[in-house]
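Quick entry between incubations.
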Amino acid sequence: MNWGSSDFKVLCSSEENVRQFTGETSTDNFITKGGAWRELAELFFCPECHECKSYDQCQFSVESKFCSGCFSVFEKKNVTKCTKNCVICPMCGCTLAINAKDDNSGDKKGKVFTMSCTFCSYAYKTDIVIKPAFLTKIIRQTNDDQNSDHLQFIDTVSRALEVEIEAVKKAKYGDDRKSEVATFVDPNTLKTMGLSTASGALVQENQDGLERLLSFNEKEDIELVRTQMSKTSMFDCPSRDAVISQAYSVFRTGSCSGKEKPGAIPKVSHILPLAKKLHTRLSYRCDQCKSILALPDKNPFSTKYKIKWNAIDILPRLSLSGRNHGDYPKEITLNHSVNVLLTIENPLSVPLHLTLATIPTLDGGFLSNHESSVQITLPIAKVTLGGKETDGKDETSVIKSIPTPFLTEKTKISKTELALRSDYQTIAASKDIDSSFDLYDSLYESGDNWCVIPLNILLSRVPEYVRELNIMLPLHLCVESDLTDVHKFSGLHDSKLNYKYWTISDMGTFVINSKK
Amino acid sequence: MTDWIETSTGNRISRKAEITGSDRILIRGNCTISEDVKLQGDVPLGGSSKGSITIGKYCYFGKGSVVVPPRIGDGGEETLHGPVEIGSYNIVGERCKIRSASIGSRVLIEEDCTLGDLSIIYDCCVIRRGTVVPPRMIIPPYSDVSGVPGENFLVEELPNSYKHILQTDAKRLHVLG
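Done. Structure below.
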C-alpha cells in the first residue's frame, strides 16, 4: 500500500520558470521542464499568491529546539546537541542505558556512570565523578583531557600559521609594518598565547628570522609540519574508521571486554558517547509574499499548528482507478482504448467549481517512446463538487464520503453501501464499459463531495518494436471556491479562492498487445 | 464475513487472531484486528498497572502483526513487563513486531517493522517499511523514520499534512477492511 501518497503530483514552478517559459508555444515543455513535481502532502498553499508552494519555495525559521530524550527546550542559538544527560551510542546512534554506582574504593569518593547501548554491545564507563554534573559535560571534559595534547598542537599550529599568513600578506601588499609583525612572533606574546615546548620547533622557527617568515615557502612549511607531526605521539592513534571496523569485528566475535594488547587498537569503550542531536519545530513563509504558511505550537510535543495552509486541505484530491477498488487494465492495443476512472474529492466544507483540461494528444515527454502517440478524451470539462461534511464521527458518514471505485466487499458496511449505490451497480453489471460511458457521457457517478469521471486513453501510434509503454497523464485544473469559516478568520483579503495548476500522474507501464 | 467477530463498539476481530489475557486488553472501538495478529496480554506485569495493552479507536492491525508489552526487567524467576499504550487512528502494517511502551495517535507503521522494548513513538509519525526502532528510542512528533540502526537509520521531518491524511486513511481502512 502506498500510504499518504497520491496518484497525482503537482507542478510547482518558480517565478523564474514561468518567466522562462512565457511565450513558449509548447505546453509540453512547460509541464515537463517548467518546475518540480511534488507530492500533494508535501505542499503548502499560499493564500495571497493563490499557488502551491513546495518547501524549496518557502523560507523557514526555527520556532523551538528540543531534545527528544529529556523533553528540554533549548533557547540558545548555537546549541545543536543536548547539553544535559542525553547521550547516544557512537557506533549505531541508539539510546544508551545509564547506570550509576557509588565508588569509594580509591582516594576519590564519587559515582561511576556506566553507559551501555540498547542495540549493539557498545559500553562506556566514566571516571569517578565527584561533583554532580550533566553527563554530556562529564564526557566533554573527558574528551578534552584525552585530546589535550592533540588540541594543544592544533591550536599551536593554527596560531603560528595565522601569524605567518598575516606576515605574508603584509609583505605582499608592501605594508612596511615590521614592528607590528614582530609582535606576532614576540616570545612573550607566544607564551601568553599558550605556545609551549610542544611546538618548540615552530616557535624557534618564528623567532629565528622575521625575513624567513616574510618569504613564504610552501614546500618548506609542509616539511616543517611533517617534522612536527613525526615528533608528536597523538598521531599514532588509529583513524576513527579503523576503530569502528575493529569494534564491529569485536561485536561479531562476541565480546568487547578482551585484554588490550600494548600498541593494539583501543577497546570499544575508549570511544566516547555522543550527545543527542536536537530536533526543531520550523515555521514556513512564502518566499514571494512572506505570508505565514505554517506556524507550529512552541510546545515540542504538541501536534497543533497555530497557522497551517496545507495544500491537501484545499486542493481537490485526484486518483485514478479501475472499477470496484481495482486497478485499471495495464494492457493496451493499437487503436483500442483503455477506460480509466478519474476520482475527484473535495476536501473543503464549501462547494468547489472545477474546470478540467488535458493535452489531447500525448507524445514526446509524456511517453517512454518518443515515436508513439496516445490520445486522451475527457468527456466533461466542468464539475461542481459539494462541500465535505465535518469529519465523520460515525461509520455511516465515513462510508458516504468514500467514492464508489474505492468501496470493497470485505466489510458489511462497505458491501451494503456498494449495493445501495444502485446506479453504479447498473453500470458495473454492464460488461462493455464503453457503452456505459456513452450512456452517461458526463459524470460516471457523484456523491456528496466527490465525483467520478471516465477517462478514455487511446493508443493511436506505436512502432512495432515497442512492447511496453509508460504513460504520464497531465491534467490542468482551474479551481474556484468560497472561503471556509476557518479561512475567513485568518484575515484573508480575498473573498474567494481562485487558482489553477498542472498535475501529472505516472500511470505506469502498459504492455502493448500485439493483436490488431 | 463469518471469519470476523464484530463487537458492539464496532471492533472487527478476526477469528484467526491470537489474543491472550483478554481481560487485560482494552480496545476503545472501531478497531480492526486482522488474522494471525497476536495480542499478548497475559504477561507478568511489574508495577501497579492492571491493563497490559490499551488500544485507542480506529486502529488497524495488519496480518501477522504482534503486540507484546515491553520487558522492563527481571522479577526473580520471570521477566516483568510494562503496559503498552497505543493511541487512536493508527495503522500497523503486516508482520510488525511491537514492544513499545507507548505509541501516540495518527501513527503509520508500515510492513515488517520492529519497535524495540520501551520505545516511545509520539503522534503523527510514519515508520517506513522494514524499520527497526531500537529499544528505549524516543521518536518525536512529525517524524519520518526509516532504516536499521548502525546501517541507515534516519529520522526526518514529516510534513504536517500527514496528520489529516493518516486520520482519514485509518477511518477508511476500518470501513473498507
